[in-house]
Design brief:
alpha+beta, five-stranded mixed sheet, three-stranded antiparallel sheet, 14 helices, 12 strands, 46% helix
C-alpha cells in the first residue's frame, strides 16, 4: 500500500475529528487562519504493521503527536480510546432534538456560513492549495450539520410534491454531504454539483429568486402571526422584488417573497398555508402598475393585502374565472367600492352579465384587468391636469 493514506480515509478522519485534536485533554483547534495544523498519527507503528486503515489512524495536533510518538507519553490503547471518546462527544453535542426550527437554524447557520466562506474565498478564487488545506474543515462541519439535520427532519417543511418541499432539498443536501466525503480522483476533488443552492435560502444564508408562492391568503396569515409575535415591521409590494421587513433576535432583515424555501419554512413554522384564491403574482403586478403611474396607494389593513385605498377610493381585488351574481352577493362589497377581477385568462368574460347588473344596484364598479389599467390611466391623467 505504501505510506500514503487513502484519500477516503483522510476525509473520514477529518470528519471524525470535528476539527480539533482528538486528545480529550487537548482539543486544540486544527484549522487556523493560515491553514490546518493537522497531523495524522498511526496508533500502532506503521513501521511494524504497514497499517494505513482508518482504525489505526488518528488526527492530532503537532504537540500531542510528538508526545505520543517521540516522548511515549501515551500508550496505543489509550490513544485508540480517544476515537471512542470523540464519538461519544459528537453524539452528545450534535445528536440533539430541537423544539423549533429557529433552534435548529441557530446551530446550522454558522456552519453553513463558514463552509460558504471557504468555498467562495478559496475555490472560486482559484486558490487550490488553500482550498485543499481547508477542505477538512468543510468535512468536519458537514458531519455536524448532517447529524443535526438527521435528528430534526421533523422540523423541516415537507410536501408530497418534491418541487414544493424543503425536506426534499435537505435530502439532496444530505446526499451531497455523503458524496463529498467519498473518495474522488484528485481532478474531481473540487466538484460542487450536488450542493443545492436553495439550502442557503432555507437557513437564511443567501436569498434566491424563485417564482412567487401563489397564495395571498397564506401571506396574510403569516403577517398576522408575525404581528402577534412582535416581529412584523412592514410589507413592501408593487415593486420588482416584494418583501416583508421582519425583526427577529434584535436584527431586522428582508424576507423576499421570491425567496421561496425560506418563505415556505415560515409558513410551516406558523401554520400559515392557505388555499390560494387571489394570486400574489397577479396582485403584485397590479400594484406595480399603480406605482408606475406615480399614484400613491395604501393597504386599508396590512393583514388584508387584497384591499387598498387610492385617491379616496377603496379597491378590492378578487380572482374568479367568471364572477357570478351569487359570488358578488357573497362578497357584500360596500357602496362605491371598485372591485377588480385579476383573473384575466378569459378576457372580458371573467365577469358575468348578471354580476354587472347587480353591481349597478349595489352602486359599485366592476373592472376586468384591462379595464383596471384604463381606470388607473384615467386617474393619472386627471392628476396631471389638476
Amino acid at each position: 500500500m505504501g505510506r500514503k493514506i487513502n484519500e477516503n480515509v483522510e476525509r473520514k478522519m477529518y470528519a471524525e475529528s470535528m476539527g480539533r485534536c482528538m486528545n480529550p485533554d487537548c482539543r486544540k483547534e486544527l484549522f487556523t487562519q493560515s491553514g490546518d495544523i493537522i497531523e495524522k498519527a498511526h496508533i500502532q507503528p506503521y513501521s511494524k504493521t504497514k497499517n494505513n486503515s482508518y482504525e489505526n489512524l488518528i488526527v492530532l495536533c503537532p504537540s500531542c503527536h510528538t508526545d505520543f510518538d517521540k516522548n511515549i507519553a501515551y500508550k496505543p490503547e489509550e490513544v485508540k480510546n480517544w476515537k471512542h471518546i470523540r464519538a461519544l462527544e459528537f453524539e452528545k453535542f450534535f445528536a440533539k432534538h430541537f423544539k423549533s426550527f429557529d433552534e435548529l437554524n441557530k446551530e446550522i447557520k454558522p456552519l453553513l456560513q463558514e463552509n460558504k466562506n471557504i468555498f467562495e474565498n478559496y475555490y472560486l478564487e482559484d486558490q487550490k492549495n488553500i482550498w485543499d488545506l481547508f477542505e477538512g474543515k468543510i468535512l468536519s462541519n458537514n458531519k455536524k450539520i448532517k447529524s443535526l439535520l438527521c435528528y430534526n427532519l421533523n422540523l423541516i417543511q415537507s410536501h408530497e410534491h418534491d418541487k414544493f418541499s424543503n425536506l426534499y432539498l435537505v435530502q439532496i443536501y444530505l446526499t451531497h454531504i455523503d458524496e463529498f466525503e467519498i473518495t474522488r480522483p484528485k481532478k474531481e476533488k473540487a466538484r460542487f454539483v450536488l450542493f443545492p443552492e436553495k439550502i442557503n435560502s432555507l437557513f437564511g444564508i443567501k436569498p434566491i429568486k424563485d417564482s412567487l408562492l401563489p397564495s395571498t391568503e397564506s401571506l396574510e396569515a403569516l403577517i398576522i402571526e408575525l404581528i402577534n409575535n412582535g416581529k412584523f415591521i412592514e410589507i413592501k409590494m408593487g415593486i420588482d422584488d416584494p418583501y416583508l421587513l421582519i425583526k427577529e433576535d434584535k436584527a431586522i432583515f428582508r424576507l423576499f417573497l421570491s425567496d421561496t424555501p425560506r418563505l415556505r419554512q415560515y409558513y410551516d413554522i406558523y401554520g400559515c398555508f392557505r388555499k390560494a384564491n387571489v394570486r400574489i403574482g397577479s396582485l403584485n403586478f397590479a400594484l406595480k402598475f399603480i406605482n408606475s403611474r406615480e399614484i400613491d396607494f395604501s393597504f386599508i389593513k396590512e393583514t388584508n393585502l387584497r384591499e387598498i385605498e387610492l385617491e379616496n377610493v377603496k379597491i378590492t381585488f378578487i380572482y374568479e374565472y367568471c364572477l357570478s351574481r351569487l359570488e358578488l352577493q357573497n362578497l357584500s362589497p360596500k357602496k362605491n367600492t371598485v372591485l377588480v377581477n385579476l383573473h384575466n385568462w378569459n378576457g372580458g368574460s371573467c365577469i358575468s352579465k348578471e354580476a354587472y347588473e347587480l353591481a349597478k344596484e349595489l352602486k359599485i364598479t366592476l373592472l376586468t384587468t384591462d379595464d383596471f389599467y384604463k381606470y388607473i390611466n384615467r386617474l393619472k391623467n386627471a392628476k396631471k391636469y389638476n
